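Escalation from tier 1.

The customer reports that the assembly of two entities below gives different structure tokens on two consecutive runs. Tier 1 could not reproduce it. I'm attaching the input and our single run for tier 2 to review.
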Amino acid sequence: KQEVTQIPAALSVPEGENLVLNCSFTDSAIYNLQWFRQDPGKGLTSLLLIQSSQREQTSGRLNASLDKSSGRSTLYIAASQPGDSATYLCAVVWDSNYQLIWGAGTKLIIKP
Amino acid sequence: GAGVSQSPSNKVTEKGKDVELRCDPISGHTALYWYRQSLGQGLEFLIYFQGNSAPDKSGLPSDRFSAERTGGSVSTLTIQRTQQEDSAVYLCASSSDRPGQPQHFGDGTRLSIL
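Tier 1 run:
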């Protein structure tokens, strides 16, 4: 069964720290992997998308890596800020219809 | 606007009523998805439209759920004879028809069944 797991479910760190969020998936034959951010009561904001042929993607203070062989992706956030507080979701596309299979998310709190 | 638009943003209705949720995708996007986000269930895929092809309905939880997409643009998700377990946030996403492109989401419709 194709599943996506995110650990930890919640994370609280002081402002300014660098941090890593983890995502693991059960089947390495992915099309792509996407990281999203969700603020309370809001929809989903796409942060980074990594194609199966890529190893990493960067956007500002965010860097996402992909290791298909080990079934893992990490989202690295540099110099965290209180505005980074949100739930971060990892989602994987396996099928040709491109439906996203979701992790349960990591709730991140950045303490001022 | 430039993003995916969903309406209504909130809907409260009585058990047994029918509801319609609307999604207006990004202009030019041929792929459209519906997902549901429930407490304790996380996000789950419901249905996928791609151009004029037959939709992938494999994620619809029961025959009370249906969706259509008119003219390859706006989509409507209909839930008949609503039940309390239908309470959730219903999210719509669209993407371009080029393989592997990111999905862009609307703010969702929060549905509450009393």
